[in-house]
Specification:
Number of domains: 1
Order of helices and strands: HHEHHEHEHEEEHEHEHHH
Number of strands: 8
CATH class: Alpha Beta
Strand order of the largest sheet: 2-1-3-4-8-7
CATH topology: Rossmann fold
Radius of gyration: 19 Å
Number of helices: 11
Helix content: 40-55%
Bound molecules: thiamine diphosphate, magnesium ion
CATH superfamily: Thiamin diphosphate (ThDP)-binding fold, Pyr/PP domains
Distance between the termini: 49 Å
Largest sheet: 6 strands, parallel
Structural class: alpha/beta
Oligomer: single chain
Length: 331
């Protein structure tokens, strides 16, 4: 789509249209999978990141294609923002042979090396050492790549995250630790698990810069990420970004209810800070988006997701002899 306007923050108008479109793609993908999970067409569970799209788009959207990401259980948005195609992702959630991981990863364990997505993992905090390892490889081989490590506020007190942050700091590894603080780890409020008011202050103890970022603001997330990338590529080591955000829905498809642990008023307040609406307003004011382009983006993404669901539905199940293929490392 042809973009208008002069751009913003040193990025061209086309780039902002791309980032906005990524957010819409994430929103529509996840809104579509919720009923499919309920109907049992997608089996197992999935963790929607609706409400958190500005973190995924703001971080991944300013990376080079060869930069790596490591994600967690709430990773659809990160994968979409890093460039994965929705049909293969949808087929993966359906457990089909055409899925990005041949149906064996499912929602929580998507990986796509073509897009430098080393993997999503369901074990809270376990992505941190993997990100550190990739960053060590990038530094040793002088490739210029950076690595993003996404995790939630629930991972912040995991020992393995501490160890990984420490090693990244002492070895000045090109990694950015992106903590999506959506205020809850399942039903546990972050403030009950960490005495620090700002999780970003944790970074100081490791000797790395840490910033609290308004995670629903696409432009601000992009700005902090670009600065962190500059430090990483210049050999100045890791950065910790605490992106304050909020998930709109329950923890997962299996745990949709939030009433027991989240006040309804809090949910209403955060919905007023919808990251897509915020970006739409700013980009419209900057004459980058118009009501027509916004409607066209909505329409084209809806058609794309329709196509993704149809692709997943008509795809074959994996064949039985394939059951152990790609599951274990070669022995
Ligand atoms: C090591 C470990 N402990 C517990 C769990 C169960 N569990 C899955 S997600 C989750 C909450 C994670 O919260 P957070 O890191 O804040 O991410 P969010 O779900 O909010 O995106 C928990 C406790 C797990 N998967 N791994
Ligand atoms: Mg959380």
């Amino acid at each position: 789509m042809a973009a208008k306007g002069n751009g913003l923050d040193g990025l061209p108008a086309e780039k902002w249209v791309e980032l906005y479109t990524i957010m819409v793609r994430i929103r529509q993908f996840e809104e579509r999978i919720m009923p499919l999970l309920k109907e049992g067409k997608i089996r197992g569970t999935a963790h929607p990141s609706v409400g958190q799209e500005a973190v995924a788009a703001g971080v991944c959207g300013v990376l080079e294609p060869r930069d790596y990401i490591v994600s967690n259980h709430r990773g659809h948005g990160h994968c979409i923002a890093k460039g994965m195609r929705t049909p293969e992702m949808m087929a993966e959630l359906f457990g089909k042979a055409t899925g990005s991981n041949k149906g064996k990863g499912g929602s929580m364990h998507i990986a796509d090396l073509d897009h430098y997505i080393i993997g999503c993992t369901g074990i809270v905090g376990s992505g941190a050492p993997i990100a550190g390892g990739a960053a060590l490889a990038a530094k040793t081989q002088k490739t210029g790549q950076a690595v993003i490590c996404f995790f939630g506020d629930g991972a912040i007190n995991q020992g393995v995250v501490f160890e990984s942050m420490n090693m990244a700091a002492i070895w000045k590894l090109p990694v950015i630790f992106v903590c999506e603080n959506n205020l809850y780890a399942l039903s546990t409020p972050a403030e009950k698990m960490t005495a620090l008011k700002k999780l970003a202050d944790r970074a100081q103890g490791f000797g790395m810069p840490g910033f609290q970022v308004p995670g629903n603001e696409l432009r601000t997330v992009g700005k902090f990420t670009r600065e962190a990338l500059e430090r990483a590529r210049a050999g100045h080591g890791p950065t910790f970004l605490e992106c304050k955000t909020y998930r709109w829905y329950g923890h997962s498809a299996m745990r949709p209810d939030t009433r027991a642990y989240r006040p309804a008023e809090e949910e209403v307040e955060w919905r007023k800070r919808d990251p897509i609406a915020l970006a739409r307003k700013e980009l419209t004011e900057a004459k980058i988006l118009t009501p027509e382009t916004v409607a066209e983006i909505d329409r084209s993404i809806a058609a794309e997701i329709d196509g993704a669901v149809a692709f997943a539905e008509r795809s074959p199940d994996p064949s039985l002899p394939e059951i152990f293929t790609d599951v274990y490392a070669p022995y």
